[in-house]
Amino acid sequence: MKCKKCSGKLKVHRMCRRVRMRCTVCGQEYQIHEVASELDKETEEILEKYTAIIYD
Known about the structure:
By secondary structure, the chain is an alpha+beta fold. The chain contains two helices and three strands. The radius of gyration is 11 Å and the shape is globular.
């Protein structure tokens, strides 16, 4: 997945009860619902490991 801001690679970033997508280039963070329509297969498989994703 690519960052909307700089086109860098987004990676799943887990913090205690929260899961975000964070850009490896500019550091921009996205909540899952902000990028849900653009999830690729690789990211979906990573997110499937979590029993719940907290929206805050």
